[in-house]
Structure formats: C-alpha cells, structure tokens
Write a structure and sequence with these properties.
seven-stranded mixed β-sheet, binds zinc ion
Length: 306
C-alpha cells in the first residue's frame, strides 16, 4: 500500500485566516520554526493507479495539483481518484466532495447516517448526481469489513474496517434529524489492510482510548492519529472561552503519549493538528517531548509504502 499525506492540519488549516494565536502570528511574521499545513487529507493506493481519498478536505483542489500521481493520465477527462471513504460529516472532512463535481465517476463509501445527512438534507451534494453513475454511494457499517471499490465496482485490493469512535454529529445537523440517525455511525476511525497484509490506522478524531482499540492499534504498521490539541484547555486559553479538547472529541496529545507509550509495532504519526498546538513549533519543548516519545508530526507531502 502507498500512503500520501496531502494535508495534515485540523479544520481551518495553519495558519487559519482569522487566527492570531502565537503560532499563526509567527508564521505571518516569518519567525516560525516549522511548516505551514493544509487541512487533513490522506490518499492511499494498492496498485499505484487507483487512489482512494480518506475524507475530502476543503483544500482538495490544491492538494491534488501538488500531487502528480493524482493528475489525469489519459484522455481529456480522467482521474486516478477512484473513490472516497468518509469518516464523518464534518465540513472539513466532506466539503472537498463538492470540488469533485465535474462528472467524474466516483465511489463514495459512507455510513448510512452520514450519507443521509449529505444527500437528503444538503441539496448541494446533488451536484454529484447529475448523470447516472457519477457518484455511486455505498453504505458501510462500523465493525464490518468492506472492499474499497471504484465506481464500476472493481475491487482495489484494499480492505477497510470502520471503528465507531464517537456518537457526536456536527452542529449543522438538525436535532430532529439527529434523532433519526444511528449514533454509532457519527464518527469513525479506519483500519485498512493491503493485499500484502500491511495495515494502516487512520484516526483523526479520537475522543477516548479503550483497551480494545489500543490492542487493535498495536496490530497496525502505521498509525495516523489524532494530534489536534496538545492540552485539554488549549482553545480556551487562546480564545478566552469555548470548549475543551475532550468536549470537541479529541484526546489531547499530552494524554495520548502515556496511554500509547506501550505500542511497539506501529510507526506513530500525529496528523489533524490544530494551528494552536504548540508542538507545531519545532523549537518548542512540546515538539521535543513528542519526538522523544517516538512519535512523528505529519507534514503535507509526506509519502511512504507499507
Ligand atoms: Zn492560530
């Protein structure tokens, strides 16, 4: 399996347009020790020809242009992007679907609840259904394995299992609609197996870590894991008000490090990093602590084979 990290920041990217936190200010002043980042986007392939997107970020157009493997190869209209797998209905995870509306056949794998939110409640997503077999939606259920397929139904060699991680739907989903949805289909993490049995975990929003999940993570070769916030009160300290990291569905990194210290097998990489997170600053003690604990901090453009 080939893995490309096209974007590694949380919603809003880094720097964020309306943010003047210490990190964002330093980037604009040219004094920041570290990289800017677009919003989290990962692409994977088994055969190097058909690529699958994990989520569809609002930065997808520039991310595709920055990645030659995702450029058209033959004919006037073509794309190596065969499908998309959705982990939730958050705007920074699904808005990129609207950037893929140019009549290109695609398979969209999603839970039935996420599909209903997008297709039944948000008419803009009808732009993906203007011709027959444009976007072909396939429901998956948490806990059951499914094959990543293109629009024609051809299997890619990649198998995916979704883990239910949160029962929290985005704030834009109306409360009467939320009562009709399956709570366990709100927010997923993925464990993806290749044809050669290498295994990738993609978990950009993890509100809690139980023993079952930790055991599963230890069967993986690479973890792409929730690095949104360093501390639970990070946003409150920056903004003066707001929600804690845990209330927003993210375990802070300073709590993850001891909880996952015993993982031996996987290469451990944080992604989905909020612009306020002090570990983005490579001159910070938090950066040194993360690196010293054996974790890496994803940057846009990283790629590897497993
Ligand atoms: Zn900021």
């Amino acid at each position: 399996m080939e893995v490309k990290i096209l974007g590694s920041a949380a919603g809003g990217a880094f720097p964020q347009w309306n943010c003047a936190c210490t990190n964002c200010r330093a980037v604009r002043a040219g004094t920041f020790h570290g990289k800017t980042r677009t919003q989290t986007q990962v692409a994977i392939t088994q055969d190097g020809r058909s690529w699958f997107l994990l989520g569809a970020s609002p930065d997808l157009r520039t991310q595709i242009e920055a990645t030659p493997e995702l450029h058209p190869r033959e004919g006037v209209r073509q794309s190596p992007i065969a499908g998309v797998v959705l982990a939730n209905a958050d705007l920074d995870h699904v808005l990129g679907l609207l950037l893929l509306r140019e009549l290109q056949p695609l398979r969209v794998h999603a839970t039935a609840s996420v599909r209903r939110i997008l297709r039944e409640d948000n008419s803009m997503f009808g732009m993906l259904q203007r011709i027959p077999n444009q976007a072909v939606w396939t429901d998956f259920e948490p806990g059951t394995e499914f094959h990543l397929c293109n629009a024609q139904g051809e299997e890619s060699g990649l198998r995916c299992q979704a883990w239910s991680l949160s029962t929290h739907y985005p704030a834009y989903v109306a409360s009467d609609r939320q009562s009709q949805l399956v709570s366990g289909e709100a927010s997923l993490g993925f464990i993806i197996d290749s044809a050669s049995r290498s295994r990738l975990a993609y978990m950009p929003a993890v509100p809690q870590l139980d023993d079952t999940l930790v055991q599963q993570l230890n069967t993986c070769d690479v973890l792409l894991f929730d690095g949104t916030f360093w501390s639970d009160d990070e946003l409150i300290r920056v903004q003066g008000s707001g929600q804690t990291a845990l209330q927003m569905g993210h375990i802070p990194v300073e709590s993850i490090l001891p909880k996952l210290a015993a993982l031996r097998r996987p290469r451990k990489i944080f992604l989905h990093i909020n612009n306020t997170n002090p570990m983005l600053d490579e001159a910070s003690p938090q950066y040194r602590q993360v690196r010293g604990a054996g974790w890496e901090i994803a940057e846009d453009g990283w790629q590897f084979k497993i």
